[in-house]
Amino acid sequence: MMKRWLLAVIVCSLVASGCSRYKGIPETEKNSPSSDETTDDSSESSETDKQEETLPVSALPKKTPVKVKGIYISGYMAGSEGFQAILDKIEGTEINAVVIDVKNDDGRITFAMDGAPTVKEIGAEKKYIQDMPAMMAQLKARGIYTIARVVAFRDPYLAEQKPEWSLKNKDGSLHRDNKGLAWVNPYRTEVWDYLVEVGEAASRAGFDEVQFDYIRFATDSSMKQVVFDGDETKGRSKTDIITEFIQYAYGKLSARNITVSADVFGTIIGSNVDAQAVGQVYSDMANHLDYICPMIYPSHYGDGNFGIDHPDTEPYKTIRAALKLSKSDLEKTRGEAVKQAEVRPWLQDFTASYLDHHISYGKKEVREQIQAVYDAGYDEWILWSASNRYTWDALLSEEEAKKEGARIAQQRATKEAESTTAAVKTTQAPVKVQSEAEKSLEGAVEEETTRQQSSSGEASEKKEKRNKPPVVIVTTGGLRNEK
C-alpha cells in the first residue's frame, strides 16, 4: 500500500513540475552535440546520468544550504605551498568556504579534469593543482565548503583554439579587446556546452558549487568593431542571450543536483545603461540561479554615487546602499518568479591606491562591509583579494561568529515584531483627512534619486587619476591591481 502511495506522489510531482527547468534550443539550431552526451568511463555513472536526465529537479535529493563566509583563492595559489598557509590561517575563524579557480581568466583549466572531452581536445589544462583529490579531501576534512570559479566568455585560450566560436571583426579577423585578449561569442551554443562540461567535471572533482564569472560581453571601445551574425543572434539582444545562457546552464547543472551561482557587476543594479552594455539584468539572472553574487566593492563606485562623496572612503554606507538597491530590484519581480537566488555579495579586501580619494583597507574597513551586509538583511559574503592577501584580524573566531549570529537573529526578530505591531496600529488608527490649506502648506514631497552613471569601460591594472570618476565596471577575475 505504501509503495502505491509513493508511486502516486512521484507521478503527481512529474505532472506538476515537468521534467526540466529549461526549454532547450531545438537540436536543429545547435552546432554541436550537448556535453551531456559525454559520460564517465563507468557504465554505472552513465546509467545514473540517464536516470537523472529523466527526473525533475524536485525528485533529486536537496543539498543542505550553507551560509557562506568565504575568500577567493587563485588556481596558482591553490597549487602552491602558500595554500597550506592560507588553510592554517582559516582554521578557527568564521571562514567556512573558498572560491577556487577551476577555469581561470586565461581560459586554462587548473587541474587534470576527467570526463571533459573538449577540455582534452584543445589542451586547456594547465595543472597548477597537481593532486586535486588530495586537496579536496583536505578541504572536506576541515569542513570547508568548496566553490569552483568558472570564467565564462572572456576565454582567450578557447578563442584561439576555436576561432569559429569567437567574436569576429568586420573583416573576419579574430576580435581582441584593448588588452589584446580574445573573447568567445556568447551566442554560440557550443560555448555554452563547453562551460556546462567544465561545471559538471568540477562537481565530479568534489566541488560543492559552480560559480560562473564573466557571464557578459566585453565593454571597451573595441567592441564597436565586432559584428554578429543574424543567423546566430535571431533578433536576441545582449541581455536576452546572457539570461538564456544562465537558464540553459542552470537547467543542465541543477538537474544533476549541482548548486549554481554567478558573479555580476554591482553597477547593473538599478542602471539600465550598464545592464544593456554588458548583457546582465540582475533580477532576470536571479530567477535562474541558486546564488547571485554582486561585486559591490566601494572602490568601484564613482564619486557621488548613492549620494556619497567618495564611496571608497565610506565602506559601510556604500555596501549598505548597494544592497538596499539590490533588495528593491529583486522585490519587483519576486512575485513573478518561481524561485529567486539568494544574494551573496563580494566585498573588498584591498586598498584602491589608484583613486584620488581612497583609504587604506584594514580590519575596520573590512568589518564595516560585513556589518553592512548583515544590516541589509543578508547573511553571506565573500572577500576578494587578487593577490590572496587577506586581513585575517578582521575575521571573528568560530565562537565569536556564533554569538554574533545569535545577536543578529534576535535583532531581526525584534525588528520584525515591532514592524508587525506598527502595521496593526496604522491599520486601526483613524485616517486624518487633510484640508486643501494643509496640503498646500505642506507642499509636494519630491524624492531625490541617486542615479549611477554609465560605465565607461573595464577596470585595468593601472588606473588613471580622476577627480570624479564614473562607475567602473569590473569583475572578480585576474591578478590585476586589486580591482
Secondary-structure map with pairings?
Blueprint: H1 2-17, H2 43-54, E1 69-73, H3 75-78, H4 82-90, E2 97-103, H5 117-122, H6 132-141, E3 145-151, H7 156-161, E4 168-169, H8 189-204, E5 209-213, E6 226-227, H9 230-233, H10 238-254, E7 259-265, H11 272-278, H12 282-286, E8 291-295, H13 315-331, E9 342-343, E10 346-348, H14 363-375, E11 381-384, H15 398-428, H16 436-442
Helix pairs in contact: 8-10, 13-14
CATH architecture: Alpha-Beta Barrel
Shape: globular
The biggest beta sheet, please?
9 strands, parallel
- CATH first level: which class? Alpha Beta
Please give the radius of gyration in angstroms.
24 Å
User: Which structural category fits the helices and strands?
Assistant: alpha/beta
**Percent of sequence in beta strands:** 5-15%
In DSSP terms (H or I, runs of 4 or more residues), the helix count works out at 16
Record the strand order, biggest sheet. 9-8-7-5-3-2-1-11-10
Q: How many domains, as an integer?
A: 1
CATH topology descriptor: TIM Barrel
**Fraction of residues in H or I helices:** 25-40%
Oligomer: single chain
- Give the number of DSSP strands: 11
What is the mean pLDDT? Answer: 81
Tell me the name of the CATH homologous superfamily.
Glycosidases
